[in-house]
Write a structure and sequence with these properties.
By secondary structure, the protein is α/β, with parallel strands linked by helices. It is about 30% helix and about 15% strand.
């Protein structure tokens, strides 16, 4: 019953938009602040599905800014649907489906999506927050594929070489396996969603963390050759061109004025074993962009200089060192920065915490179960327990530029890369991250 109530609400909203449009009101400029790609007003005669057959899922996040932005995107889609005079699609925000933060990785959400909409819909279409969709063109695309079959559609990306973030899958021929560019949107047919839902419910996912979501989704769907490969759809685009059903703007939305360098404290984690070779790279690249910066090691080295935290270096995780940095940041009266940026010595910039988040973390008592625990995963567990939203931004990269598909939209405005294996990090910095116009803001 709740599903029908939800659909009826959306139809009322769409009808209201349509009525106001005919009366001369223009809400879209107020919603988006800019013009949109024009919708096609006529459908070809051979269209076999309608907007009511499509469930659109916006990959939203619980953070207040992103949640509000995605609500705006939802209303924009409903408005466009109303103008077309068709049944309207179901539009869902991923973060509202449940309290499970893991739903962001899509697969855990599939059983609920299928249970609620599997009998009334034909397609599930997933889109990023900044993806723009032309509804009429989307219907033209989806109508090409028989809805009774399993389909996995998207803009095809592939690796040019075996990649560590993809666990060196298909190392003999990396280009043979395709995965979707989330910025262009991707779709699965209901029969495929049903089979995936049953798998998710009856099989434990192989991992409880995600490194590269689109590739891992594609691997799960492919299921070692038992499931469909990604079908490339040329109308799923990131750059505008003729006949595009989707386009993409940017992963850098306008979310306010930049933050002053004096409000960001940068903590660089290093150790005696690596500091002589890695710290010079930091000093030669991004150190000059930081206003407040300290190097933290297991020894004191006045030539850098480094601060010893009294925590021995560990070969695996660095939870003890990270939490010592967090405590030092909070306790130093002279350091009143609003943000803490924690960076490994082999990162070309990483993880960011607000002062309020640091306060809640330390007052909660949550911490490391050992000094060599994985600090990123412990922080994630602690902040999830505290219901502090962990905001994903695809511009932070786990690996080196060459580990990602060249067409990936996030590479164009990258914030960080990680690891110096078999690379020249200074060259990578100059090519991908160097700001030729130094500023006092970040």
């Amino acid at each position: 019953m709740s599903r029908h109530v939800n659909v009826n609400k959306q139809r009322v909203v769409a009808a209201l938009f349509l009525l106001l449009h005919h009366l001369g009101f223009c809400f879209e400029d107020k919603l988006t602040g800019q013009s949109h790609v024009a919708e096609h007003q006529e459908f070809p005669a051979n269209i076999s599905i309608g907007l009511g057959d499509v469930v659109i899922v916006i990959q939203s996040q619980r953070n207040s800014y992103h949640a509000a932005h995605c609500h705006q995107k939802k209303m924009e889609i409903l408005q466009k649907a109303a103008k077309l005079g068709q049944d309207i699609p179901v539009v869902l925000l991923l973060h509202e489906l449940s309290e499970n933060e893991g739903d962001w990785s899509i697969l855990p959400a599939l059983p609920r999506l299928f249970a609620a909409y599997g009998r009334s819909a034909s397609w599930f279409f997933f889109m990023a927050e900044e993806t723009a969709v032309i509804l009429s063109a989307l219907l033209v695309v989806l109508s090409r594929y028989p809805v009774q079959e399993e389909w996995f559609l998207g803009k095809r990306l592939h690796d040019n070489k075996a990649s560590i973030i993809h666990h060196y899958a298909f190392s003999e021929d990396p280009a043979s396996f395709g995965y979707p560019d989330p910025a262009a949107g991707w779709a699965v047919s209901v029969p495929l969603c049903q089979r995936l839902s049953e798998r998710v419910q009856h099989e434990n996912l192989k991992s409880d963390f995600t490194i590269d979501l689109p590739h891992e989704i594609a691997l799960y769907i492919w299921e070692g050759g038992n499931g469909p490969e990604l079908t490339a759809v040329p109308e799923f685009c990131t750059q505008p061109s003729d006949n595009c059903a989707t386009t993409f703007t940017t992963y850098l939305p306008d979310c306010g004025p930049p933050v002053s360098k004096s409000k960001v404290f940068v903590a660089v984690k290093t150790c005696e074993k690596f500091q002589s070779e890695r710290v010079p790279v930091v000093k030669a690249t991004w150190e000059k962009s930081a206003g407040l910066l300290e190097y933290y090691s297991d020894v004191i080295d006045a030539s850098i200089p480094t601060v010893s935290l009294g925590v021995p270096n560990t070969d695996r995780g660095h939870c003890g060192k990270t939490f010592a940095i967090v405590r030092r940041f909070w306790s130093q009266a002279a350091t009143k920065a609003d943000w803490l940026l924690i960076v490994d010595d082999d990162t070309l910039i990483r993880m960011v915490l607000s002062r309020t988040a640091v306060s809640r973390l330390l007052s909660s008592g949550c911490g490391c179960y050992s000094d060599d625990a994985p600090d990123d995963m412990v922080l994630g567990r602690c902040f999830t327990f505290l219901r502090v939203p962990i905001i994903h931004n695809p511009l932070f990269h786990q690996a080196q530029p060459e580990d990602y598909a060249e067409e990936l939209s996030s590479l164009k405005h990258a914030i960080s890369f990680h690891k110096h294996w078999n690379t020249d990090p200074v060259t990578i910095y100059r090519q991908w991250l160097h700001d030729t116009d130094p500023r006092d803001e970040l």
